[in-house]
Design a protein that fits this description.
single chain, 434 residues, alpha/beta, 2-enoyl-CoA Hydratase, Chain A, domain 1, Nuclear Transport Factor 2, Chain: A, 3 domains, 7-stranded mixed beta sheet, 6-stranded mixed beta sheet, 40% helix, flat
């Protein structure tokens, strides 16, 4: 869900072109003072697919502290991240050097507890959509924001505060504005360390004496946890080295893999949905190499790695570019995969006991799938949900818009179309029909 040519919450300069996806980094080596929560850093502009990346990065992770810093981006992905972190019970934090505005601010408000450090900036404005060469506020986008904030339990005053500024300006949060609108948070003084920024989100008022005792306890605990985290930090380093070796083996010939397999895989592996022996895995890889004689798999950036405290197991989530061809048949395969690899300690090193991947669809393909799914739910029969913008999908969208007296470009997928369907809902290919 999201909006227009695109409906996005961000400064106009950020709307001119598709930016790089936000960086989502998980850090379990440092914990907050009481709850031992891992930290997740979400920085940069939110792009299409970032909600899925956030879900993958936090899968299996205990409730965390989400540090936010970015200019906004795609609305629906941001709101989906917000829904996800609220569901997980995550805290949100904006540190003193962070500038969290637009869609980023909407993620921040979803935290079960929210902290804001002096010197950090949090700003809101109305949703906007690019329509041709113009950028305009969009009622459908603001309706989605209102529904989201209501779902989170906020009063109407917060909805108004988050959407009243024009899309060309920014309403920066102040203590007075937060108090008047009913948006609660914990203030953190400038100069407080990162861990305290998050722990302040749930620190109750204590007497001066109690605060002093708590500080001593917190400092002692941090020293203990720092010593405890050393094995995990070393495990992350080793896992990162191992993943480099894992990718090298993925590009190896079947003959070389037979030699390398014992150093890469456990005796049995959950490989792409099947439980197979190492020998069967080698056989399958050999068959795949025959199908794609020219094959290259390369990491796309550094993956997110989380390890247990003792470093006995690690989970690695990242993206990889695949480029394969079969000269004999002329077939080619090119794209980006999101992979998850799980490692278990064996002796002094690691072995893979689980691997899976999924194709990262292009922006337009992913948007088309979302529109097709929304049309299907509204009873418009757009054909298969295949990400292809064809005549059946265009016809289904046209029928839906005509039935509701709505206007949207049906020649190509747009976030405006998706937003209108999501907001209006409907049955029997008629908006708003029960």
């Amino acid at each position: 869900m999201r909006l227009p040519g695109f409906v996005t919450l961000a400064f106009l300069t950020a709307m001119v072109t598709f930016a790089h996806a936000a960086e989502i980094r998980v850090d379990q080596s440092a914990t907050d003072a009481k709850g031992e929560r891992p930290r997740v850093f979400v920085t940069g502009e939110i792009e299409l697919g970032d909600a899925a990346r956030f879900r993958s990065a936090t899968y299996g992770l205990p409730p965390a502290i989400i540090y936010l810093d970015g200019p906004g981006g795609k609305l629906i992905d941001a709101l989906t991240i917000g829904d996800r972190l609220r569901e997980r019970g995550d805290f949100t934090a904006v540190a003193s050097n962070a500038h969290c505005t637009s869609a980023c601010a909407l993620i921040w408000v979803a935290g079960v507890e929210r902290s804001w450090q002096d010197g950090g900036a949090i700003g809101f404005h109305a949703a906007a959509a690019r329509q041709g060469d113009e950028v305009r506020m969009t009622a459908s986008g603001n309706a989605i924001v209102g529904a989201y904030l209501t779902r989170l339990g906020y009063p109407l005053s917060v909805v108004v505060m988050a959407t009243e500024a024009d899309h060309t300006s920014m309403s920066y949060l102040t203590a007075d504005l937060a108090a008047r609108s009913g948006l609660g948070y914990r203030r953190v003084p400038r100069g407080t360390d990162e861990i305290a920024v998050a722990s302040a989100a749930r620190t109750a008022h204590r007497s001066a004496e109690g605060q002093t005792g708590s500080l001593r306890h917190r400092m002692a605990r941090q020293r203990t946890e720092s010593r405890r985290s050393e094995p995990r930090g070393e495990a992350v380093r080793q896992a990162r080295q191992f993943i480099d070796f894992y990718f090298a083996s993925a590009n190896a010939s079947p003959e070389a893999l037979r030699t390398l397999a014992g150093r890469v895989y456990a005796d049995e592996v959950d490989s792409f949905g099947d439980r197979v022996s190492r020998a069967e895995l080698i056989r399958r890889r050999a068959a795949y190499a025959e199908r794609w004689p020219d094959y290259a798999l390369r990491k796309a950036g550094q993956p997110a790695i989380t390890c247990t405290t003792a470093g006995e197991a690690c989970t690695v989530v990242g993206e990889a570019d695949v480029d394969a061809a079969n000269p004999a048949t002329g077939a080619t395969l090119k794209g980006t995969l999101q992979y998850t690899v799980k490692l278990a300690r064996e002796g002094a090193g690691y072995r893979v006991f689980h691997e899976e991947s999924a194709v990262v669809a292009s922006r337009e393909t992913a948007l088309t799938r979302q529109i097709q799914a929304a049309l299907s739910a509204a009873g418009c029969a757009p054909g298969p949900i295949d990400g292809l913008w064809g005549r059946r999908t265009q016809s289904a969208l046209s029928r839906y818009m005509t039935a509701g007296g709505l206007v949207v470009d049906t020649a190509r997928p747009s976030y405006d179309a998706l937003a209108l369907i999501v907001v209006a809902g409907g049955r029997g290919c008629r908006p708003g029909q029960a």
